[in-house]
Amino acid sequence: MRAEHVVEPETPEPSGTERLPGGLLQVLADLNSDLNHDLVLDRICRSCVELTGASGAAFLLAEGTRARVAAVVDLPRDGLYLVIDAGPDGLAGLGRYGRRLVVPDLHDRPTVSPAVRRVCAGLHTAVITPVMARRQLVGALVALFPPVGYELNSIEADRLDMLAGYGGIAVANALAYEDAVRAEAHLVAVIDGINAGVAVLDRAGAVTAWNTAIARITGIPANQAVGQPFPLTTGTPEDPVEHDLGNDQWVEVVATPLDEGQVVAVHDISRQKALDAAKTLFVAATSHELKTPLTVIRSFAEWLRGDSGAADVEKRAMALDAIADSAEELRQIVEKILLTARTEAGAIDLDPRIVEPVRLVQAVARQFVVAGRGHTLVIDLPESLPEVDADVNAVRTALGQLLENAFKYSPDGGLVTVSARALPGGEVEISVADEGIGLALGESQYLFAAFYQGETRARSGVRGGVGLGLSIVRRLVEAHGGRVGAEGEPGHGSRFWFTLPAARPLDDDPADSGLDTAEAAVAPEGERPAEGPVSG
Fold first, then answer.
1. 329 in the Ramachandran plot: left (φ > 0), alpha (ψ -120 to 50) or beta?
2. What pTM does this model have?
């Protein structure tokens, strides 16, 4: 029996597109190994070239009716970021039908732009596969081949479909992650930009975010706070907790629950606390200030009522003078309280006129030439200054209050200097400097608040007022559009100043400018202001 020779068909060597399944799985697994979407898109394109034998690949990200070239492999880099008009439906048509599109010859298609043809020089067939994730179109994977009318074999087609499926999930994850990173960065920027202190805590109570304001308020930098328990007891919006951080700094802490923890707001309430304390002091000081003249009035009134006429005329006159002086003191206290109420309510009725500040300051200052024992008043003014548009009585009140304070808080005497100068920007500054008890560090920002009495002044033993004078100064000056300020050091005197806007030049005769009225309003009867610096 003769055996026949059977010729088995030749089995071709596996090509690069027919890799083992294990290698294919590794390629697909690599797609999800990173959340950088640029890297993911590059890996998808490279895998497309490896698995299909394509001569080039590109990934198009769907952007409405257009598509943007987001990654290329084995294609000119200037193809990146090209925007392609994909027709009325955009890439949505690909996703709607879930089918790939094969363009047999890109260079023979009128709708293909010259820029795309340039990038695809030498490549004709484009196999465009929709890339989906969670039933949403992410984009399209384009495999490019040199021949015209190239057709994928079944293995290449299956691998391309599998790559698009896994790639869609990888791209969606990467884009979602980057959106989350951007959202978190935006949230951090917003939190960091809030003036109030804000911290975010996880469910265990550890700090995960710590903005610039809370670092400033607490003195704890972010790198020491993050990962640690929140350092202060927290309250609720209905029941906030207050903490004394020392150095007269108070904060209010409120926590609000979140799904993954809580957000804590820390507000600096130091100013509010200082004002509350100042109001308490105001009540006590006002009671004292009112009680002193009332005691004098009552005492002398009872003495006069009980006097049967035996007292001589001189003693009776002394008692009546004391009653009158105390009544005037009461009137001034009440007037300050009422003026403060009007200025705080914004009900200031100014009567502005064009005034020459040199003459006005001289006239006010001369009333204080003999105001204190051991003091020397120096009026240091230039020959002329720009005129100001001001209410004479308001300026007199403001400057008079500063001069009164300068003498009062210089118990050991010394120089009290009143001066004025022109500032850039059309302002005139009027200031009063003394050699008295000075100001505590950081105190100047509170001095012009109603009811506040300076820390240095409270400790000096000098009998103060009710804490309204500087508040009145501020309100009167601000009503003119001016500014107030103070500087000084403990034991080294202080300088208080305010500004008034300069008036525009007038063509009227100076005699009609209200200067004589200004002098009459501020100068003692029978006196005219001196024309140069005065010491007394």
1. alpha
2. 0.42
